[in-house]
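Work Package 4 report. The design task specified in the project plan requires that, given a folded chain encoded as C-alpha cells, an amino acid be chosen for each position. We show below one input record used in the internal validation round.
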C-alpha cells in the first residue's frame, strides 16, 4: 500500500512500518519457510511500486501472482484490515504483462544466443573449463566469418563445422579437440530435449519493454516459470541473463527518488546452487553495481543461508518470515538469520523467528539516511489484488490484448550460421571437387605431354636413324664409285702399258 510516497508494509503493533522508495535499489531479501507469507509480502511491495509508477519484473514459480490482474475480495481481508486499524484500503487490479519462455501462458521471451555472456551460456550447458574455452573459440570463429549465432541450431551447426575443420582452426585460434566439440554437442542435444531451444531466437527481448507504465502505474512483468522451473539450471541462468542484460544496457543514473525497475527472484537459491566461482563473482559484481543503474533486486528464498555471504551483504532491506528449526543445521540457520538484523532490545529475534504466525515477518529496512532500522515483528498488510490465481481465460485475454504481442509472438528466423554454414560447406565441397577435377585434368595433360614427348623422341630417333642409313648408303655408294673409278683407271693404265 502506497502512503505518502512510501510503501506501507504493515504494522509493528501500532507503529506503521514503511519501506522507502529511494532505498529500494539497495536490494532486499524476502525469506521464510513455505507457507509463511512470502508471496503476499512480495505482492504488497510490487503493488506499491506499481502505484508509484515503478515497473517490476517477477519470476512466478507457482502461478500465485497471476491474480494481480483481478481486484481482491475486500470481504476476505476486512478482518485483517480491522485488526490493523487500516482505513481507506482499496482493492484493485494492476497492469500486468505476462511472459512465458514456452509461449503457453504469456508472450515468448527470447535471448539472442550470441548476445548472452559466455559464462552464463557455459553454465546452461554445464561445461568444463576446457569446453568453455572451445565454446569461446567457436563464437570467435563465427564472428570472424560473419556468421550470426541466433538460436540453438546455429550453434549446433557451428560446432559441427568447427569440429570437421578442427586441425585448420587450431593453428589460428588455439587447441580445438574433437572430444570437447563432441561434449558440447551432447550438451546441446540435452538442452534441446529440455526444450531449451525456446530460450533462444529472434526477436530477442528489448529491455526497454520491461520499463513501461500504464496510466501512471508501473507495469508488472510476470515471467510464468512453472514449466521453466522444472529445469532449475535453465531457470536460474535465464534470470541471471535478464539481470546482466539490464546492467549492460541501462545508463548510469546514481541515486534516484525511486528505482527504474525492481526485480523479484523467487526460489533464489537456484541462482547459486553448484554455481562455479566465475559465475558467483559475476553475480556479486552485477548486484553490487546495478543499483547505480536504478535497479533494485529482491531475492526470495526459504533461508538467508541460501544466498552467498558476498551477495547477502548487499541486501539491505530484510524481511524474514518464520523459519522452522527441528535439526541442528536448521537451528544454526535460525541463529544466523537472527544475527543478521540490527537488534531490538525489546525483541528476542532468534525466538520470534520460529514462533511467528503466517503473515508476520521480522522487518529491518533502510531509513532516510541509509542506515538499517532496528528489527521489528511486523504484521504484513494484505494485497489489493486477488490472492487467488487468475483463470486461464483471463490470462489469455490479457496476453491477446497486449500491444507487444505483435512484436514478440511470431519467431523470426533470419539467415544465420545454420544456413550459411551449409553454404560454406557446399562451397568448400564444390571447391574441393573443382580442385580434384583440375588435378585430374592436369594429370591427363601431363600424361598427354609425356606421350607426345615420347612419340617426338621416337620420331626424332627414327629420323636420326634414317639419316644415318642414308648417309651410310651415300658413303657406300661413294666408296663403290671410288672403287669402280680406281678399277677403270687401273684397267686403262694396264692397257696403255701393254701397248
Amino acid at each position: 500500500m502506497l502512503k505518502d510516497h512510501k510503501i506501507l508494509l504493515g504494522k509493528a503493533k501500532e507503529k506503521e512500518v514503511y519501506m522507502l522508495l529511494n532505498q529500494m535499489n539497495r536490494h532486499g531479501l524476502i525469506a521464510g519457510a513455505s507457507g509463511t507469507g512470502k508471496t503476499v509480502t512480495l505482492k504488497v511491495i510490487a503493488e506499491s511500486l506499481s502505484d508509484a509508477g515503478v515497473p517490476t519484473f517477477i519470476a512466478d514459480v507457482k502461478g500465485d501472482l497471476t491474480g494481480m490482474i483481478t481486484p481482491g475480495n475486500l470481504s476476505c481481508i476486512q478482518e485483517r484490515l480491522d485488526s490493523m486499524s487500516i482505513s481507506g484500503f482499496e482493492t484493485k487490479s494492476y497492469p500486468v504483462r505476462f511472459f512465458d519462455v514456452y509461449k503457453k501462458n504469456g508472450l515468448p521471451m527470447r535471448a539472442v544466443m550470441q548476445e548472452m555472456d559466455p559464462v552464463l551460456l557455459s553454465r546452461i550447458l554445464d561445461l568444463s573449463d576446457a569446453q568453455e574455452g572451445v565454446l569461446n573459440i567457436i563464437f570467435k570463429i563465427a564472428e570472424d566469418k560473419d556468421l550470426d549465432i541466433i538460436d540453438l541450431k546455429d550453434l549446433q551447426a557451428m560446432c559441427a563445422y568447427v569440429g570437421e575443420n578442427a586441425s585448420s582452426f587450431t593453428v589460428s585460434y588455439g587447441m580445438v579437440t574433437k572430444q570437447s566439440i563432441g561434449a558440447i554437442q551432447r550438451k546441446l542435444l540435452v538442452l534441446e530435449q529440455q526444450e531449451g531451444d525456446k530460450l533462444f531466437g529472434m526477436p530477442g527481448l528489448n529491455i526497454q519493454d520491461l520499463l513501461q507504465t500504464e496510466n501512471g502505474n508501473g507495469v508488472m512483468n510476470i515471467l510464468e516459470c512453472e514449466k521453466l522451473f522444472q529445469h532449475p539450471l535453465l531457470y536460474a541462468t535465464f534470470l541471471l541473463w535478464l539481470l546482466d542484460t539490464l546492467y549492460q544496457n541501462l545508463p548510469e543514473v546514481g541515486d534516484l527518488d525511486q528505482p527504474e525497475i525492481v526485480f523479484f527472484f523467487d526460489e533464489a537459491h537456484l541462482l547459486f546452487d553448484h554455481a562455479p566461482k566465475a559465475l558467483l563473482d559475476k553475480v556479486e559484481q552485477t548486484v553490487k553495481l546495478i543499483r547505480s543503474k536504478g535497479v533494485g533486486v529482491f531475492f526470495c528464498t526459504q533461508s538467508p543461508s541460501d544466498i552467498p555471504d558476498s551477495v547477502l551483504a548487499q541486501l539491505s532491506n530484510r524481511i524474514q518470515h518464520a523459519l522452522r528449526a527441528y535439526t541442528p543445521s536448521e537451528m544454526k540457520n535460525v541463529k544466523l538469520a537472527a544475527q543478521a538484523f540490527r537488534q531490538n532490545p525489546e525483541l528476542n529475534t532468534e525466538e520470534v523467528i520460529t514462533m511467528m504466525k503466517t503473515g508476520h515477518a521480522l522487518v529491518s529496512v533502510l531509513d532516510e539516511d541509509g542506515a538499517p532500522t532496528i528489527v521489528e515483528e511486523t504484521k504484513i498488510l494484505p494485497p489489493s489484488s486477488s490472492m487467488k490465481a487468475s483463470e486461464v481465460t483471463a490470462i489469455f485475454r490479457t496476453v491477446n490484448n497486449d500491444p507487444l504481442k505483435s512484436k514478440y509472438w511470431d519467431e523470426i528466423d533470419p539467415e544465420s550460421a545454420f544456413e550459411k554454414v551449409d553454404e560454406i560447406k557446399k562451397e568448400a565441397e564444390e571447391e574441393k571437387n573443382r580442385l580434384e577435377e583440375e588435378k585430374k585434368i592436369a594429370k591427363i595433360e601431363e600424361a598427354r605431354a609425356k606421350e607426345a614427348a615420347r612419340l617426338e623422341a621416337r620420331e626424332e630417333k627414327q629420323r636420326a636413324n634414317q639419316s644415318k642409313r642414308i648417309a651410310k648408303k651415300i658413303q657406300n655408294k661413294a666408296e663403290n664409285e671410288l672403287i669402280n673409278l680406281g678399277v677403270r683407271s687401273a684397267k686403262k693404265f694396264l692397257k696403255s702399258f701393254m701397248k
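The CA atoms of residues 148 and 474 lie 85 Å apart. Validation will be extended to a larger panel in the next phase.
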